[in-house]
Amino acid sequence: MSPVPPVHVSPGAAHLSPEVLRLLDKWLPQQRWYPVPAEGVTHEPWLTVTFGGVADVVVALLRLAGPGLAAGDESLVIQVPLVLTPTAEPEADTAETEEAGLIGTVTTASGRVTVHDGGVHPVAWHAYFTAALPGTCEPEDCAELAGARRISGEQSNTSVVLPALPHATGRGGMLKILRTVALGPHPDVVIPAALTRAGWDGVPRYLGSVELPADGPGAPGTAGDSEDSEDSGAAGEAPARAHLAVLSELVHEATDGFELACAYAARDEDFGERALELGAVVAHLHTALREALGPGPALEPAGFMGVLRRRAAEAFADVPALAPHRAGVTALYDSLSTRLSAVVDGGGVVAMQAIHGDLHLGQALWSPGGWKVLDFEGEPQRPVAERTAPDLPLRDVAGLLRSLDYAAAVGRATDPQWVSHAQISFLEGYREAQSRVGAEERGTRPEQSAAGPRPEEGEGYREAQSRVGAEERGTHPERSAAGPHGTVLDVGTAELMLRALTVDKALYEVVYEFRHRPAWMHIPLAAVERVLSS
Ligand SMILES: Nc1ncnc2c1ncn2[C@@H]1O[C@H](COP(=O)(O)OP(=O)(O)O)[C@@H](O)[C@H]1O
Ligand SMILES: O=P(O)(O)O[C@H]1O[C@H](CO)[C@@H](O[C@H]2O[C@H](CO)[C@@H](O)[C@H](O)[C@H]2O)[C@H](O)[C@H]1O
């Protein structure tokens, strides 16, 4: 007997009545994971997903359309799993039902239906879980789902802890339902899967994923999306490829890196050792990514600077409070542009590669097994193509430097050295591990690498900063990966690059805070000011 295909996909709003869609229009913008400001945004049904043998679970994939949003293949698509159950009476007790993820009760052509958020509903969890690991249990007696719970907090997606899930190295899983669906392979699936395959244990081990079936309807903007295309997967039409969820091993006794750093900051306790270890893990991550996914192209200054400038322009357009910094950002980017062009004109190659892309302390878990890095989907507010493009590893370094600054602010460290010490330690951990890997590849001892000795206690942040990403003579792995050509970056350009990437990140954060947590906007705003005046 052949197994029932677990995931079916239909075009448009199949299985979803207009009443349910209207209910969603009101509910969606109130969700933390809703990716854009809601004003003027409409939700257009793109595809509907159902799971073989599970009657009540319907997943709406909705395209967001409206001011400032891209159309066609670039459009933002959100995933809305629903549990739809026929019901006789409206729910009576609102408080109780809110707890259970009730979205509402509506009367449709086929009767009265209760609509629940599938992100918090065990029946939907079971559907995703069995699609990720086919051939497992029935919902009623699924031992793997015992004790399952959604994690709460400020998440861009919806993650569910499965404490009882058995696997090769123990017990416990994390099911992550991706709320923003990327057309094509999703980096939060592809990257952990590649790193797990390569044997790198700095990520939670990848166990499985849920993907649209290969013979489903076309991508937005293709023939499969047109109104007269009833026949899903019609000849000549490119089926849409998209991941919906990812399952990974649960990291036990894990502490969120941001909470950990804030707790240290609140006690003014030295975070140096943890930061040093994290720096080393991030350096190893970059090596593992390069090895697992291959080197990227060389940086092309005009294109690279064009992206930085466009992102800054978007931030200035979104947040009026940034206006006083426009000239400073332009001047910083002009200096970097001049230096980068000189490097490249002089025959230097600045190699790019796959990076994390949105690295901050909340993406790192501290556990008895050391730091684990999570969440490879890139900055959720950016277009997918931009998020997955090869980039400079220094972008991740800048992200963590910013995050340590957030931890100092949120944890209210009173010692002004707390943050600089943590940042220097992080940079040193990164640099030391980078030199060790480089030396191993060259067959020399780490001390012989050109990166120089560790800065003495008290040496400044600027010095430590300028050592990271700077030229290390001849055989740096990034260089050999990029080909036989010369330089990475000289010390001055590396420092300028890190400052520019820090500003780029802080501008992104200002927009993020403006949209989601205005009370924290002062944190990145102060950073923009500080970096520009340093
Ligand atoms: N494999 C895992 N083991 C333990 N905790 C995890 C695991 N994956 C994620 N988490 C926890 O869930 C939180 C959210 O995960 P993350 O992948 O960052 O989702 P989001 O994209 O929604 O922010 C993390 O901050 C971490 O605390
Ligand atoms: O984790 P996500 O993928 O949802 O990332 C988004 O949300 C983050 C906040 O949860 C946000 O990070 C910013 O705030 C953090 C403290 O909460 C801080 O440590 C980070 O440095 C700062 O960037 C992230 O930018 C956003 O993409």
TrEMBL record:
Keywords attached to this entry: ATP-binding, Carbohydrate metabolism, Glycogen biosynthesis, Glycogen metabolism, Kinase, Nucleotide-binding, Transferase
Lineage, top-rank taxon, reads: Bacteria
Where in this chain does the entry annotate a coiled-coil region? none
All copies of domain Maltokinase N-terminal cap, residue ranges: 27-118
Ranges annotated as biased composition (Low complexity): 213-224
Per its record, the protein catalyses: D-maltose + ATP = alpha-maltose 1-phosphate + ADP + H(+)
Q: Which InterPro entries match?
A: Kinase-like_dom_sf, Mak_N_cap
UniProt-listed Enzyme Commission number(s): 2.7.1.175
Question: What Gene3D superfamilies does this protein map onto?
Answer: 3.90.1200.10
Which residue stretches does the UniProt record annotate as biased composition, category Basic and acidic residues? 435-445, 454-479
Q: Where is this region: Disordered?
A: 211-238, 435-487
Q: What class of enzyme is it?
A: transferase
Q: Hey, which family's this protein in?
A: Belongs to the aminoglycoside phosphotransferase family.
User: What's the protein here called?
Assistant: Maltokinase
